Amino acid sequence: MAFGGLDIGSSGVKCALYNDKGSRIALARREYDCMAGGGHYELDGSLVWEKAKEVLREAAAQSKEPVEAIAVSAIGEAGVGLDKRDRVLAPSLMFHDVRGMEESRLLCEKLGKRRIYEKTGNVPNGTYTIEKLMWIREHEAYYKEIEKFFLFEDFIIFMLTGERGISYSLAARTMAFDIMEKSWDEAVFEAAEVESSLMSGTFPSGTVIGTLRPKLAGELGLCKQTKILTGGHDGWCCALGGGMTDNRAAINVSGSCETISVLLDGPRRDGFMMESGYSCIPYIMENTYATYGLCLTSGSLIKWFRDRLGGGRSYRELDESVSDKPSGIIVIPDFSVSGTPCFSLDAKGLLYGLTLDTSASDIFRALMEGTAFHIRMNMEIMEKNGIEIPAVRTVGGAAFSPLWMQIKADIWGREVTTVEGGEGGVTGLAMLAGKEAGVFGSLEEGAEKLIRPGKTYVPNGRYGGYYTETYGMFQEMFAWKRRYGNEFYRTGYRNIGGESPLHG
């Protein structure tokens, strides 16, 4: 017997299968590109579906055992509209696409920001699915042809099975889902002038929605009886795959963006959480809630450096070129969209401390330091307000970089442990699928069998004082940017009074 997960990301899709002994027996990946330009970011749903079929076919070919169950996770916010013939009508608007900002303001006028946050667990900001749908309704003729509207989790599930169903955790990324009632919030749909009937039914993570369409099963080399399950928002599935099954571990998910994910002691929507943009989301495990601090340009920033300034070197070669000493440069890593605690769709990054002696390798290290400072800032805000950050584990791309992991431990001033294999998302999905297949009696048991802690990085006391001082400067610059940033970039330094970012 085999079971596993299918993870739909913003830049690619992967599928992993495991056997009943807990060993991974198959792994397949495909990449694709997001279409970008002029503040618009789009993803072709038809292309994603084709790549999903490719990885399922490849994974099935690697497995010598029949596949019992597959859980599906996906990126948040982006939606896919189908017509009456189940054809994709248009590219999906990604979360960081600027379309939806005015619609967000209109929703707040109709319902109030506090009411929206209390019900949906999200602070309106222009990124959420319902805000994008409002924009499509107002500006795109194809809106009238939409027969069904999905996020990528339930889109792939529907294409695989012909049945509809979305997990609570991903439904919550629409900002139109009542996180307490676990159902669509009709007041939000009414205010948005969008029909809730377009959406799929909502279910807990790990719910069987259907089995493979018979013809498709043959095409993919899978059994017709293969069960397809709800997984969840990809970030939360990564957290589960990193071992966040109780409040003893916080998970640093480090991919294109970076989060520090923490279980809550209930459905908290405190004032500081709304002010800082911290969502309260139903977690993968039943009757639990979680939140996260977010840096939206992390791995994507490192990729940008590699592609634009890296001189053709690989990540490993770039790591090896870096000094083991702090860079002496402060980076505010908001090179596209900023995250918590100061969200903006039109953010800009900052570098401070460059000299004629600065090398490309210094800047590369500084980018890693900047993202670590950003997450430290979120940790401190949470802990100051009673959300405990326990032992930290890292899953995702940064876990493969000893350099970056040591930087995190040094800047955070705490031990950080990696997870072997690095594939937190599909591991979390396999825990859900294995439970459904009867391999595990619980997700906790699945974690014991599938998750293996890797290396633990301990803070280097040699740099602790330096990073504490530098972090203070980072906070000061971040506060200045939060106060003046957008006006500064639109009108220039002199037009905002000439205050220094460090001494104003």
Number of strands: 24
Strand content: 15-25%
Count the DSSP helices. 17
Low-confidence segments = 491-504
**End-to-end distance, in Å?**
64 Å
Rounded mean pLDDT is 93
- The proportion of residues forming helix, as a percent range, comes to 25-40%
Lateral strand order in the biggest sheet: 18-19-17-16-22-23-24
The outline comes out as globular
Largest sheet: 7 strands, mixed
Radius of gyration: 22 Å
Describe this structure as you would to a colleague.
Helix content is about 40%, strand content about 20%. The chain is an alpha+beta fold and about 500 residues long. It is globular. The model is unreliable at about 490-504 (pLDDT under 50).
Briefly, what is this?
With 504 residues, this protein is α+β, with helices and mostly antiparallel strands. Helices cover 38% and strands 22% of the residues. The strands form 7 sheets. The chain has a 7-stranded mixed sheet. It has a 6-stranded mixed sheet with strand order 3-2-1-6-15-14, sandwiched between helices.
Q: What are its keywords?
A:
504 residues, alpha+beta, 6-stranded mixed sheet, globular
